From TrEMBL:
Enzyme Commission code: 4.2.1.113
InterPro entries listed in its UniProt record: Enolase-like_C_sf (IPR036849), Enolase-like_N (IPR029017), Enolase_C-like (IPR029065), Mandelate_racemase_C (IPR013342), Mandelate_racemase_N_dom (IPR013341), OSBS/NAAAR (IPR010197)
Gene that encodes it: menC
Protein name per the record: o-succinylbenzoate synthase
SMART domains noted in UniProt: MR_MLE
UniProt keyword Lyase, yes or no: yes
Top-rank lineage group of the source organism: Bacteria
């Protein structure tokens, strides 16, 4: 496949509710979308890089620059037969994984259209529905925290993850556990703690959490192993897993017992599949993380989540939790059992609404072969 044009755009979408984590608050999402054109077909990808380099070192403007100056020109010179060929085309460029993923995932989508099969099938998915959880941001008050958890449990979500940080942890876990003794409950610190907190964190075993996500430094899995030895609750690794080697090193080292796979964080579907396989080899379950995606990234997360080792509910939830109006149709909905049906039609399985994308586009650029 010779890609003829790559359209890059930045869109800005206000979130229906502010999303607060230990590293900051999102009220609006700035996102890069790429559209590739090839042999009369068009396919889309999304870069999940944030507005600031707070979750990872990439951000919207670095992703834009990397795509414009380095990545898109390489892809436009290449001849690729599938998404699997893209990492090799881009490999001279180090890092910039979220930027790379936007392009690579669009090529996977293109290939699924060309083959007339669903993206899920092309990726090797085996599930016809996926299990959904939610990630709840740090709320303004304890009352609002409890009310939000109650609402999401009532909606049917199978796992509730609570963002936490020092000062917003034990009391919150105790309150929510008390109200819901049996649900799958987890927390995500986004690296808000250090080893000085290790004994206190180890004592969270009393809350019977399904997992504790990335409690320590974003680039560490050495010290996570020391913490994991002290506690029964599995550590789930997010930020620190950049590729299949990290996954293998972390699992050999005992740094965690669960991996959150974010396709942007690992640089695209090829690497996401490889991380999935490494975890499976270790008997370690994975789940699909979220980055407050638009419908494009969300649809692609649904496809990825249909692979067999996605054994725990992901952070892939309904469009309406994020957006007043999503940019795909129909919007992504979750059943009362907390499941999303995996589409079987060719491609991502949800239609792009171009007028809506145009209306929120703040800059765009076309690159040609
Ligand atoms: O750590 O999983 C995270 C959102 C932005 C950055 C990092 C994270 C998150 C989430 C939200 O937890 C998941 C979602 O609902 O998309
Ligand atoms: Mg996380």
């Amino acid at each position: 496949m010779k890609i003829e044009e790559i359209h890059l755009r930045e869109v800005q979408m206000p979130l229906v509710n502010p999303f607060r984590t230990s590293f900051g608050v999102h009220t609006m999402r700035r996102m890069l979308l790429v559209e590739i054109e090839c042999e009369g077909m068009t396919a889309w990808g999304e870069s999940v890089a944030g507005e600031h380099p707070y979750f990872s070192d990439e951000f919207v403007d670095t992703a834009w620059t990397a795509i414009e100056l380095e990545l898109a020109p390489r892809l436009l010179k290449a001849d690729v037969s599938s998404g699997r060929d893209v990492p090799d085309v881009l490999k001279q460029v180090r890092g910039h994984r979220m930027a790379k993923a936007a392009l690579e995932n669009a090529v996977w989508e293109l290939d699924s259209l060309r083959q007339g099969i669903s993206l899920a099938k092309l990726l090797g998915g085996t599930r016809d529905k996926i299990a959904c959880g939610v990630s709840i941001g740090i709320q303004p008050s304890r009352e609002e925290q409890l009310a939000t958890v109650e609402k999401e449990v009532a909606a049917g979500y199978q796992r509730i993850k609570m963002k936490c940080q020092p000062g917003w942890d034990e009391e919150i876990f105790a309150m929510v556990r008390d109200r819901f003794p049996d649900i799958w409950l987890s927390c995500d610190a986004n690296s808000a703690y250090t080893l000085e907190d290790a004994d206190r964190i180890a004592a969270w075993d009393r809350f019977n959490l399904l997992m504790i996500e990335q409690p320590l430094w974003y680039d560490d899995f050495y010290f996570h192993a020391q913490l994991q030895k002290k506690m029964k609750t599995p550590i789930c690794l997010d930020e620190c897993i950049r590729n299949r080697r990290d996954a293998r090193a972390a699992l050999e080292n005992g740094s965690g017992r669960i991996i959150n796979i974010k396709v942007g964080r690992v640089g695209g579907f090829t690497e996401a599949l490889a991380v999935h396989d490494v975890a499976e080899e270790f008997g370690v379950p994975v789940w699909c993380g979220g980055m407050l995606e638009t419908g494009i990234g969300r649809a692609q997360n649904v496809a990825l989540s249909s692979l067999p080792n996605f054994k725990l509910p992901g952070d892939v939830s309904a469009s309406a939790r994020y957006w007043k109006q999503d940019i795909i149709e129909p919007e992504v909905t979750v059943s009362a059992q907390g499941e999303i049906v995996v589409p079987t039609t060719p491609g991502r399985g949800w239609e792009i609404v171009r007028e809506r994308i145009d209306a929120i586009t703040v800059r765009s650029l076309t690159l040609r072969r």
